[in-house]
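Appendix B. Chain record.
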Amino acid sequence: MSENVQKYLQINIDLPLPLLEATYEFLWSQVKGLKVKRIGRKFVLSVYILSASCNDFSPKIIAFLQTLAKHHRVNCPAVTVERIENSQMQDFIITPAPASEVLPFGLPVLLKKGRAFGTGKHPCTIYSLQALQDIYQGKFELNKPKKILDAGAGTGILSIAAARLGAENIIAVEIDPEAAAEAKENVRLNQLGDKIRVLPCSVTEIEGKFDLIFANLYGILLKQMAEFFVERLLPGGRLVLGGMVVPDDEVVIEIFTQHGLKFCDHYYDEEWSVAMLRRGP
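Structure tokens predicted for this chain:
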């Protein structure tokens, strides 16, 4: 393992859902990168720091977690520190921008945080990223998507992540002008302008068909746009539905299956839900 990798540490924090977003926000400006995985009934937030700063960093995060846990009346989350063992990891690592350096491992997703949704802290973003990885790792025996539509792109996080996995034809649509500008800036920071087009318009203005559609929106809008999204899927294409709340997600999923899609997988916790569906050949 290179000396450049060894200068970093990975700090893992086991978090219940109520503590996830606040902890992520607290750490955003203090670390070199962040990733979140849902493991069992908890979230594991991993952050990356320079080894040399561990003695100063650890007391800060422990004090923060103790205060936060007390406020929510839950046990203080466990914190573990480890060295980077796998420099070839293929996990997405959200990198707060501007960054003095990009971590020499993982799949970096540089984000300049503004007001747009999608910095990696929300469960539906976390689940959508996991669904993307599952597709590209062959979990569903699906050919790698050639044409992707990111509906409601926010910061552009999902489009950038898809490009990091090799996608080269991505349309990121964002109706809010300020959010669209943020997405364009994040695409520029990641030097992916040749693979991602950010369009500041309504997704209903988009024509053509796609191998993969991300619709990380919200339940009512998903219900209203079900027919549109189904029509935009190519045969064999996948649709990732996000922004659904439990238990309303069952109703949303049923609407899409009534339009001919087949349920593939489900990523969820006690509050939030993301589903993957497939259009038959």
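Further analysis of this model is presented in Appendix C.
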